[in-house]
Design a protein that fits this description.
This protein is of the alpha/beta class and 334 residues long. 36% of the residues lie in helices and 15% in strands. It has a 7-stranded parallel beta sheet, sandwiched between helices. Helix 6 links the parallel strand 7 and strand 8.
């Protein structure tokens, strides 16, 4: 079997080759998209990461591909309908960094509420130890609103309880057993926006969660609240964020993900595609505005990125491939 792994860092190669000694294995640091296709294309199994894009324009380049497995939980970089039409089975990693992402979210929360980034920057860049404008707030006793109580949301709730916070949560399918064991309240989405001092997003991205936070409901947010997004950029309407910050509805925002994130990372390719949509260009402009705001922290989709989590991702991906080869595919996306 001919297997290809793309977007590798290098350290994974020994582990991969050890697990597939009888197969032809192609290893690459390159990402895949319609503008960056590998010369070699006769792979039957392909593994990618989040910066690759598999769609109807890319799939014909891999005529022999039977199985595609992404080394991620999110899969919005894959056109599932196009894969189905081509008969390509698609797998993912259902869980690898529940605590990893939740811990990162709280790192962002602390950086916002205690102005840690500004304090470090002041000392490093200016050599100043002045405390002017660096006063923050305690987390203890504050109300955190957790949107989504899946694996990561549950970890965030447990961490919040450790900080002595009051916890409100929104989820269309509440986990009542978890609620009773940990001690928090499920509330309606709008009530969470109205009541939370800190809002942290941990729900999946899909048609129902697209622009879940938007220009209409941003007005409901408790004045001065902080918004954290380590899930997917499209869950929050970018224009609503800019409006909320400018109108001082939001006290601060920290994001590990952006709407139109891929285009921000590679703007030149985006702008040479032809005629970008007005909404996409607008979001790119708003993203640049956000980057310049002093009460906004943006990190480069790094919440998943611990050594332990990355190893779990790779191990699950290898297992996905082995089970597919054995005729027992698992973790398939429907």
């Amino acid at each position: 079997m001919k297997i290809a792994f793309f977007e590798l860092e290098g350290w994974e190669e020994e582990f991969i080759l050890k697990n597939f000694p009888e197969d032809q294995v192609f290893l690459s640091k390159e990402k895949i998209n319609e503008f960056n296709l590998p010369p070699e294309n006769d792979f039957e199994i392909v593994s990618i990461f989040v910066d690759s894009e598999i769609n109807a324009k890319v799939l014909p380049h891999f005529p022999k591909m039977k199985f595609l497995t992404t080394r991620s939980t999110g899969y919005d970089h894959i056109d599932l309908n196009a894969c189905r039409k081509k008969g390509v089975a698609v797998a993912y990693v259902p869980g690898y960094g529940d605590n990893t992402v939740a811990e990162f979210a709280f790192g962002l929360i602390l950086s916002l509420t205690r102005k840690i980034y500004q304090a470090v920057d002041r000392v490093k860049e200016n050599g100043s130890f002045s405390l002017k404008d660096l006063r923050g707030i305690d987390l203890k006793g504050k109300t955190i609103g957790v949107i989504g109580t899946g694996r990561i949301g549950k970890e965030a709730i447990k961490i919040a309880k450790g900080f002595g916070m009051n916890v409100l949560a929104y989820d269309p399918t509440p986990d009542k057993k978890f609620k009773e064991s940990v001690g928090f309240d499920y509330v309606a989405f709008n009530d969470l926006l109205k009541s939370a001092d800190i809002i942290t997003i941990h729900c999946p991205y899909n048609e129902k969660t697209y622009h879940l936070v938007n220009k209409e409901n941003i007005e409901l947010v408790k004045p001065g609240a902080f918004l954290i997004n380590t899930a997917r950029g499209e869950i929050v309407e970018t224009e609503a964020l800019v409006y909320g910050l400018r109108m001082k509805i939001l006290g601060g925002v920290a994001m590990d993900v952006l709407e139109e994130e891929g285009e921000i990372k590679d703007e030149l390719n985006f702008l040479t595609k032809g005629h970008p949509k007005e909404a996409e260009l607008k979001n790119m402009l708003y993203n640049h505005i956000l980057m310049e705001m002093s009460n906004v922290l943006i990190t480069p989709h790094n919440a998943f990125n611990s050594q332990e989590a990355i190893q779990r991702i790779l191990s699950t991906t290898v297992e996905n491939i082995k089970l597919f080869l054995a005729g027992k595919p698992t973790n398939l996306l429907k």
